Amino acid sequence: MASITGSAISFAAPALRRSQAVNKLSSLNSVSFFSARKSFPSIGSAPLRLQISCAAKKETLDKVCEIVKKQLALADGTAVTGESKFTELGADSLDTVEIVMGLEEAFEISVDEGSAQEIATVQDAADLIEQLVEAKA
C-alpha cells in the first residue's frame, strides 16, 4: 500500500526521465522530493515537498499487533495500532528484544541488530517485516 502526501508533484532532478525515476524509487521505502521552483502560480514562492511512503499490508500489521499484545501480556481491551510506540505500551529494551524474536519466529525472517534498534512503533516493525519478507522471496 502506498501513500502520497504533499502539495504538488515536483522532481529535484528534472533531467531524469519518468522511467528512470520509477526504477530508482521502486526499491525505497520512503522518498521525498524538494523543489524551490516558482513555476506553480497557484502555490506561490514556497518550496514544494512530496513524500511517498510504503506501508505494510493490513494483514501484516494486524499480525504484528497481536504478537506485541501477546509478548507484552496486554489486557484484551488495550488498543494496539500502527502508531503505538513500544515504550508507550510499557515495553523496556528486553521486551523489545523478545518482541523482535517473536516476529522473527512468526514470519520466518531474521532481523539484524541495527534494524531492530530502529524499531520504535508497531508500524516500523510491520514495515521492516514487509521489506524482509519481500527480500527473502
Describe this structure in words.
- The protein is an alpha+beta fold and 137 residues long.
- It folds into two domains: 53 residues, no CATH class; 79 residues, ACP-like (Non-ribosomal Peptide Synthetase Peptidyl Carrier Protein, Chain A, Orthogonal Bundle), CATH 1.10.1200.
- 42% of the residues lie in helices and 13% in strands.
- It is built from five helices and three strands, in the order E-H-E-E-H-H-H-H.
- It has a three-stranded antiparallel β-sheet, with no helix packed on it.
- The longest helix is centred in the middle third of the chain and has 15 residues.
- The two termini are 18 Å apart.
- The N terminus is likely disordered.
C-alpha end-to-end distance: 18 Å
What is the helix content?
Answer: 40-55%
Helical run tally: 5
Strand order of the largest sheet: 1-3-2
Shape: globular
Summed over residues and divided by their number, the pLDDT gives a mean of 75
CATH architecture of the largest domain: Orthogonal Bundle
CATH class of the largest domain: Mainly Alpha
Largest sheet: 3 strands, antiparallel
Give the quaternary arrangement of the chains: single chain
How many extended strands? 3
Strand percentage lies at 5-15%
Question: What class would the helix/strand composition place it in?
Answer: alpha+beta
Could you name the CATH topology of the largest domain? Non-ribosomal Peptide Synthetase Peptidyl Carrier Protein, Chain A
